[in-house]
Design a protein that fits this description.
Rossmann fold, globular, six-stranded parallel β-sheet, alpha/beta, 45% helix, seven-stranded parallel β-sheet
Amino acid sequence: MKICYLAEASSIHTQRWVKYFAERGHEVHLISYNPAHIEGIKIYVLPDTKNRFLTFILRFFEVKRLIKKIKPDLLHAHYIDGYGWYGALTRFHPFVMSPWGTDVLVAPKKSKMIKLAAKFVLAKADLITTDGENSKEAIMDLDADIKKIKVIFYGVDTKKFSPEKKDRSIMKYLFKNDFPVVISIRSFEPIYHVKTLIESIPLILKEIPDAKFIIAGEGEQKEYLISLAKSLEIMDSIRFVGMILHDALPKYLSSSDVYVSTSLSDGGMPLSTLEAMACGLAPVVTDVADNKKWIKDGESGFIVPTKDPKSLAEKIIYTLKNKEYVMEFGRINRKIVEEKQNYYREMEKMEKLYKELI
């Protein structure tokens, strides 16, 4: 097949998706706002200007030109806002649309125009894929044809993300010794509310003074979060390590003890949480998206309210003080991911859908 994607080339989600099909021998083209190097993928970067309206017009005509040049068997857009708009406006078919979460769960609630635009894009799609039940319900609320919607999980590469990747030397490098470690890898954007974790740390340190925290990511709130940690006098217990490269992530995750996600909203089940589960971690996550469908509170991890540092601290303290739970949670979570969130199995399903659509 000759597949053309409209998606963000710098995103690990896009990269994992397109690399699978390139490695399967398909001809893959990727149209993106930003450049990136992905082995075996031809990437086209769309123009940009300081004028938002002019940029939209230029990008639309460039997408049209590129599709005419590439002559793909199908067009697949990831994320409605932007890439989905261009895909729908080209009127190319077959057209596949994959919302990522915020674009159907949050954005349509901001204005009637955004909601109408989302409905337009979904109506033009011949196939809509989503990675979770909450996103599927939101898509249906936007009047999409239920027959067009298929749940395809992002899936985890369970060979790459495994408890066997454990390497505590990373912790000794970061903290000069081996301590109980809590890790967060969500971006520093308001929607992920890493502030909740920062505010929980003083409470945790009162009970477990030697606990350490790896807080990875980048984003608009980075300076604010560092400033908050300094004001709480907890910087000695934290390492802000920036964005961890995906290839290095398995070692960081498998060598930690507790994984935390303080998100206010997610589409389906976050890939980062699933990757942590595949590495055998005990997850402590907020009660959003499909988290409750995959993590049984008190049996394979803990579910806590959003914006509640006290509840978060209590569950982290409990988990770190009862290491037998960490081991049991890890065993259960690894099995769940292996059986139900296998990356290769999900991409095989997608490949079959592509062929049926063509």
